[in-house]
Amino acid sequence: MAGAIGAAMCAFVGAGIFSDFTEVDKLVKPVDSFIPNSGHKEIYDELFINYKNIYSSLKTTYQKTNSKRF
C-alpha cells in the first residue's frame, strides 16, 4: 500500500489539495517503527549488494520495455 499512498500524496500536492509534502502527516500516522539489528549488518550489506546487482541487470530491460510507452 505504500506505493499507492505515495502516488496519492503526489497527486494531492500536484492538484493543490496539499500545498506541499509536509502535509502528508495529515493522512499517514506511523503505528510502528523498525530498527535494524546491528548484529545483522553483514547480511544486510550482502543483500544490498545483491539488490544493486539485480537493479543494474534489469535497468536496460525496463528501459527497452517502456521505450514505446513514453
Please tell me about this protein's structure.
- There is one protein chain.
- The protein has helices at residues 2-14, 41-66.
- The chain has 70 residues and is an all-alpha fold.
- The chain has 2 domains: 1-33, no CATH class; 34-70.
- The radius of gyration is 18 Å and the shape is flat.
- The mean pLDDT is 90.
Question: Which characteristics define this entry?
Answer:
70 residues; mainly alpha; 56% helix
State the major sheet: none
In whole angstroms, the N-to-C terminal distance is 25 Å
Mean pLDDT: 90
N-to-C series of helices and strands:
HH
User: Taking Cα atoms only, what radius of gyration do you get, to the nearest Å?
Assistant: 18 Å
In short:
With 70 residues, the chain is mostly helical. The protein is built from two helices and no strands.
Topology of helices and strands:
Elements: H1 2-14, H2 41-66
